Amino acid sequence: MRFWAVLALAAASLLAACNRAPTAPARYVIGQPYALGGLWSYPREDFALNDTGLAAIIPDTRSGRATANGEVYDPSALMAAHRTLQMPAILRVTNLEAGRELLVRVNDRGPAAPGRVLGLSRRAAELLGARDGTQLRIVVEAEPSRALASGLPQTETPQLAIAAAPAGSVARETLAPPPGARAATQLREGRAAPVLAAAAATTAAPTIALPMQATVVAAQPGRLWVQAGNFTNRDAAQRQAARIGGARAEAFGPGRRPEFRVRVGPMQTAAEADAALARVLRAGISEARIVVD
């Protein structure tokens, strides 16, 4: 009898532990490369992201789990998942089909589906009128995103200094980072405002209130393309297009120094775009993605 009482007590304790909210501190995260949905993603800090693609709905319907940066997931809040953005970040998301716009907080990794650009919480999708495959534009709100970054500790392990054998002088140069992207250590140098400095001393995520309603904007639905790479050389773009089959290499950008992109399409539906993306991925073009144009 005592054995069953102990067993019942252990089961009750385990159930209570499973139902408790995560206790890990919220933190600022960029993260290491990782594989998800059969593709590798390479996170980086980017405060100038302006992208298009298709929506996914985060499948979790219950709150309480820890997100990738230690915050507590809540499907009734305006949360989102992105494959490469720093976390947390504030995104302006536009439903291009319905003409609705909403601010969301990115604090998790995803979506798992290769053909989706952003995972939306249930509440965010409801307010946007979005479903799986809805056309989106996503734009990072730079200032509030920088405020979040400055107000949270970064716990990622720094690179260790390793002593090396003496060597002769080597000429080198430091390349500028991509526009809008900078190392997290640079971001924090002298940036924290007094209010955010206090927040950084705690484990709670800085609070930025997001309006729980969408803004009506002009609908701008577009056609769907699978973009399979950008090149500075026309011949390289044409070789990529030939490798895929059914793709086109086209010039874009300023007339004097154009770039060349390889695309498949256009397609009218998400199902057509998904099928085209799968074919391009099978050809070994892992950087291929669905865009709206």
In short:
The chain has seven helices and 13 strands.
Examine the secondary-structure arrangement and name the CATH architecture of the largest domain: Beta Barrel
Question: Biggest sheet: strands, sense, closure?
Answer: 6 strands, mixed, barrel
The helix content, as a percent range, equals 10-25%
Strand content: 15-25%
Global outline:
globular
Name the CATH homologous superfamily of the largest domain: RlpA-like domain
Number of domains: 2
Chain-averaged pLDDT: 80
* Continuous helix count: 7
The whole-angstrom Rg is: 22 Å
Q: Going across the biggest sheet, name each strand in turn.
A: 3-7-4-6-5-8
How far apart lie the N and C ends? 69 Å
CATH class of the largest domain: Mainly Beta
Poorly predicted spans: 1-23, 159-177, 180-203
According to CATH, what is the topology of the largest domain?
Answer: Barwin-like endoglucanases
Quickly give the structural class: alpha+beta
SSE run: HEEEEEEEHEHHHEEHEEHE
Record field, number of beta strands: 13
Your description of this structure?
This protein is α+β, with helices and mostly antiparallel strands and 293 residues long. The protein folds into two domains: 176 residues, Barwin-like endoglucanases, CATH 2.40.40; 69 residues, 2-Layer Sandwich (Alpha-Beta Plaits), CATH 3.30.70. It is 24% helix and 24% strand. It contains seven helices and 13 strands. A six-stranded mixed beta barrel has the order 3-7-4-6-5-8. Strands 11-12-10-13 form a four-stranded antiparallel sheet. Strand 5 and strand 6 form a beta hairpin. The N terminus is likely disordered.
